Amino acid sequence: MATTTGTAQAADLNDPRMKDIAMQIVSSAENSSTNWKAQFGYIEDIDDGRGYTAGIIGFCSGTGDMLDLVELYQQRKPGNVLEKYLPALRRVNGTDSHAGLDPNYTKDWKTAAKDSVFKAAQESERDRVYFNPALRQAKADGVRALGQFAYYDAIVMHGDGWGSLDFTGIRKRALGKAKPPSQGGNETTWLNAFMDARVWTMKQEPAHEDTTRVDTAQRVWLKAGNLDLNTPLRWKVYGQSFEIK
């Protein structure tokens, strides 16, 4: 029989299997597929004001994370196919412009995505910018796997460190309504407050006003009391149904 400690340890997204589950769920929302490993070469402009969105976590040409990724790739493999776009990526950062990227950037991105060095760089930047900061805060707040995932999904979509509609802003809004377990609060109550704050934030941005990745996924598991994100998992995103057995 599992002890409380054992359960808490099992419900940790750092576990490779749990991390893979987290990636599958995010991919279902970002790419309409749980096969996240097929998304290294994904790239398109989804008209959300962030320029090109690409790769396993939706790196954007307009928000700086794509620039950081291509710089890391250049450090690890000088002379790669994307290196020539670094000046353009620096210029378009903060805008939705494709200036200096079209017409061949998308083709060259797909070529780079066949390179194991570029794939590893994508995973490194995903962890540095999104996964690790989300888990650090989640563990500090005393939440288990579902809460860890809720934080991760929020930081993937909203980023952090740029303003009131970022991940820190969402958490701050939630703190106005509830306390996390580390401060003596109830975990379910806290996660409901966090998800409420996330939904409010999503509705402030036209590109994110569809809140199903919370409503018909995370909230479903929370209502079921699945705080450890145990499989099987069933959910819907944007009307599509998914399952992890």
UniProtKB/TrEMBL annotation:
CDD domains: chitosanase_GH46
InterPro entries for the chain: Glyco_hydro_46 (IPR000400), Glyco_hydro_46_N (IPR023099), Lysozyme-like_dom_sf (IPR023346)
Domain of life: Bacteria
Protein name per its UniProtKB record: Chitosanase
